[in-house]
Amino acid sequence: MGHYSFKLPDLGEGIVESEIVDWHVSVGDRVEEDDLLVDVMTDKATVELSAPVAGTVVRLGCEAGAMFAVGSELVLIETAGEGEAASGPSPSAAEAATPQPALSPPQPAPTVVAEPAPSVHKTTISHVPGRHEILAAPSVRRRAHAEDIDLAVVPGTGPAGRISNTDLENFIAAGGMQAALPVSNQRLARSATTEIPLRGLRRVIAQKMVAAKRNIPHYSYVEEVDVTALEELRQHLNENRKPGQPKLTLLPFIMQALAKTLPEFPFCNARFDDEREVLTQHDAVHIGIATMTEKGLMVPVVKNSEALDIWQSASELSRLSAAAREGNARVDELSGSTVTITSLGAIGGIVTTPVINAPETTIVGINKLQDKPVVYHGEIVVRKMMNLSSSFDHRVVDGYDAALMVQALKRLLENPASIFV
Fold first, then answer.
1. Domain tally for the chain?
2. CATH number, domain with residue 384
3. 2 has which bridge partners?
4. Which residues are annotated as catalytic?
């Protein structure tokens, strides 16, 4: 028998360590070549690493959630024959049974991005008619089969409900009991609790939000905007669009209006370096679009929005949002924004207090569009109204200037023809 020492590879330029997000194997598991071993996250990508050889897992380098150094032994696999490219001595029986600790404590990852993994293994999906699809790695299925557990009753905490080894272990530890259906209308008190460690993208988001709120004094400003004329123009353009042109939502119009407004307020189209205390103002308008994905919030960036027309803005917005949701956006498509737009209007809500996407100085929030009775030209009429909820870095943007910027944006949105003049 031989041993193959699989070391954590260099997953990107300058990366010295990565977070071990979730293991898909345990000590003692049999793996085949290309079986999924582990989910790893760097500050630039979420990567699925697969087994380079077939064999039995002898040792894991650390527990899920730990930071692990590049070049350190991630997995030791016992192979048939003399072993392949084994690096380092074979472990003793005691060593093989003992998981090794992480080589360094958890450290914050600075940037939320997603890019295609260098080695991707697709998790298998089981489908039984009349039941939901079950996402789980082969090792999880083997363990469930050995324990005589139906994976359909195991709650999965991974993306799209994927069941990890940790989920299965928690289920077994809880007694492996499937909740019985109530036999009466009697309401039962609940007492169960669930602990979910923050890992991967969710941990990065948490760290960025804490840093933004701790370091940036937020100044928020909310204004009501009459978008009746804008909605009429949008409907007209959609009804008369040419083949191949995308359907317009409100966002491309707001992007166009923002690109026209910001040159008058360069401190709102800027990035602030805390350590150097330097504000960098940009002529180009690179608009980040806050996008919710299965893994968490990402911000794809529409570059040089000032150079795009309304149709180009809509096409680029659609392309980048889809890439972020599908997890194949490039690094450069998820970085470099100078101002961000966030929208919860489709869900509802009349006011939000958006958190600035550091190191930017401005974020514009779009709230619910609704028909409201308002006084218009001396009469009470029903108009389409929408609130803009914006936040500014008060260190470099005074409240007066922030209000002027929002009012200038409002004038363009209420008189949409002026956006294109």
1. 2
2. 3.30.559.10
3. 79
4. 394, 398
Would 193 be classed as within a structural domain? no
What's the sign of the alpha-carbon dihedral 134, 203, 117, 170?
negative
Q: Any idea what the CATH number is for the domain that residue 64 is in?
A: 2.40.50.100
Looking at residues 190-204, what average pLDDT do you find?
82
Taking only the tens place, the pLDDT of each residue in 116-140 is 334 334 343 344 444 456 787 777 8
The span from the CA of 185 to the CA of 183, in Å, is 7
Domain boundary among 138, 173, 208: 173
Whether residue 128 is contained in a domain is answered as yes
Whether the Cβ atoms of residue 395 and residue 362 lie closer than 8 Å to each other? no
pTM for this predicted structure: 0.62
Residue 183 lies in a domain: no
Q: Residue 10 is part of which domain span?
A: 2-173
The residue that leads in pLDDT, 213 or 65, is: 213
CB 71 within 8 A of CB 21: no
